[in-house]
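R.M. (postdoc): so does anyone remember the format we settled on? I'll just put the C-alpha cells first.
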C-alpha cells in the first residue's frame, strides 16, 4: 500500500505518520506494538527528500507502534545493532536487544534538514505516564508486553544517551506515537511543538485573525483536554490576543467542556445536540451545521 505526503508552497514536506504506521491500518486482531514498526514513516521522509524537501512537519498522532522510532531510523539508514553486530528486527519488542546505534550511515541529506514534530501529548518516553503504560494497551499490548516495552524504552534512552549524547529520558512529548517523538529528536535533531501551533503558522492564521470580527473553529469532541494543545484552545488563545471572540462547533461536548469558557471561547454548539443523536450528526452533518450557523447568526445580532 502507498501512503501520501504533502508539500507546501515553500517546499516544506508535511508527513502524517498515521498514514504509514497508523493504528487504523492494522486489523484489530493483529494489533501488537511489540512488532509494529515506524519503518514506513521513515520511507515517507526518504521519499520527501527525493523531492528535495529539507524542511519537514511530521504529525505523530494515531500510531500503532511503540518502537521509539527505530523503524523510521532504519529506513533512513541508521544502523541499530545487536550485540553480535546484526541489525535489530522490527517492533518495540526489539528495543531491549539494542547494543549499539551508528548514525554515521544515515542518509546525508537528513543532516541539513529541519524537522518539526507536531504532537498534542506531553507524555515522556517511559514511566507511569510514558508510551508503554499509557498508550500501548490501547494498541493491543498485554500487561506482559507493556512490561517488555517499558524495559525497551528505558534501554533505548540509555543507549541513545551513551552513543549519541542526547538525553530523551524526560523529554516532553517524547512518548508520543510510541516514542517516535523521542526517536525523531534523537536521530533527526527534531523539535517537538504543539500541533496546533504548527498548523496555525502553516496557514497564516495570525494574519487572518488580526482584524477579524469573529473566529469560528471546531473539533470532533470538545472536552477538558481541548484546552491543552488542541485546536479550540490554541485558536481561542490566538484570538484573545486580538480581542476577537471565538465560537466552537463541535460534534459532541464531553466531560469538562465548560473549561473552554475560561480559555476565551464565547459559545459552543454541539451537532449531537442539534441533530438529536451522535449517529444522526455523523450520518447527516450538513443540516446540523446549517442550524448551528443559523444560531450563530442569531447570536451575532444579539451581540
Amino acid at each position: 500500500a502507498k501512503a501520501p505526503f504533502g508539500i507546501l508552497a515553500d517546499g516544506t514536506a508535511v508527513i502524517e505518520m498515521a498514514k504509514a504506521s497508523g493504528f487504523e491500518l492494522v486489523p484489530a486482531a493483529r494489533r501488537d506494538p511489540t512488532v509494529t514498526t515506524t519503518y514506513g514513516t521513515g520511507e515517507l521522509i526518504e521519499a520527501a527528500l527525493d523531492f528535495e524537501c529539507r524542511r519537514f512537519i511530521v504529525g505523530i498522532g494515531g500510531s500503532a507502534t511503540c518502537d521509539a522510532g527505530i523503524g523510521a531510523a532504519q529506513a533512513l539508514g541508521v544502523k541499530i545493532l545487536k550485540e553480535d553486530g546484526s541489525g535489530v528486527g522490527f517492533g518495540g519488542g526489539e528495543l531491549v536487544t539494542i547494543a549499539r546505534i551508528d548514525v554515521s550511515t544515515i542518509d546525508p541529506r537528513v543532516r541539513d534538514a529541519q524537522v518539526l514534530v507536531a504532537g498534542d501529548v506531553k507524555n515522556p518516553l517511559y514511566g507511569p505516564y510514558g508510551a508503554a503504560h499509557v498508550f500501548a494497551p490501547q494498541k493491543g499490548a498485554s500487561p506482559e508486553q507493556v512490561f517488555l516495552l517499558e524495559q525497551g524504552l528505558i534501554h533505548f534512552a540509555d543507549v541513545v544517551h551513551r552513543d549519541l549524547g542526547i538525553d530523551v529520558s524526560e523529554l516532553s512529548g517524547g512518548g508520543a506515537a510510541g516514542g517516535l517523538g523521542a526517536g525523531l529528536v534523537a536521530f533527526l535533531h527534531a523539535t517537538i511543538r504543539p500541533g496546533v501551533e504548527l498548523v496555525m503558522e502553516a496557514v497564516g492564521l495570525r494574519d487572518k485573525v488580526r482584524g477579524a470580527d469573529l473566529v469560528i473553529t471546531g473539533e470532533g469532541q470538545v472536552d477538558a483536554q481541548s484546552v491543552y494543545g488542541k485546536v479550540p484552545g490554541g485558536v481561542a488563545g490566538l484570538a484573545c490576543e486580538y480581542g476577537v471572540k471565538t465560537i466552537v462547533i463541535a460534534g459532541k461536548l464531553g466531560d469538562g467542556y465548560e473549561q473552554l469558557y475560561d480559555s476565551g471561547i464565547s459559545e459552543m454548539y454541539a451537532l449531537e445536540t442539534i441533530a438529536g443523536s451522535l449517529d444522526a450528526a455523523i450520518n447527516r452533518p450538513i443540516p446540523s451545521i446549517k442550524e448551528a450557523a443559523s444560531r450563530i447568526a442569531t447570536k451575532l445580532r444579539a451581540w
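R.M.: ...and that's the designed sequence above, right after the C-alpha cells. Also worth knowing: The chain is about 40% helix and 15% strand. The beta strands are 6-7, 13-16, 55-59, 79-81, 100-102, 114-119, 191-194, 214-222, 245-253, 265-270.
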